[in-house]
Design a protein that fits this description.
Elements lengths: L6 E6 L6 E6 L3 H64 L1
Antiparallel strand pairs: 1-2
């Protein structure tokens, strides 16, 4: 790479020792245009991305809520079983 950010690639063929050099020229305007384009594309998708993030968060909230309900049901069943056991112990 030179001081102007041009990149040089040297290709050497092992069998014949032939060399070719490729120069990739740095074009600041081109890169700035590409960056601006990427920023614009990112802004276009930002609203959609935020909606997807909210959907994912809501999905996790629902899943966690359902797990909590399942645990509550298990506790209710366990509590009923304990009451039955205590009632049977008192009868004896």
């Amino acid at each position: 790479m030179d001081i102007n950010y041009n990149l040089f690639i040297i290709i050497k063929e092992i069998g014949t020792n032939n060399e070719n050099t490729i120069k990739i020229k740095y074009d600041n305007n081109r890169y700035e245009e590409e960056i601006e384009k990427l920023i614009e594309e990112g802004e276009e998708y930002e609203e959609n991305d935020q909606k997807e993030i909210e959907q994912i968060k809501n999905k996790f909230k629902i899943e966690n809520y359902n797990k909590l309900l399942e645990e509550i049901e298990k506790l209710k069943i366990d509590n009923k079983d304990l009451k039955k056991e205590n009632h049977n112990i008192k009868k004896e």
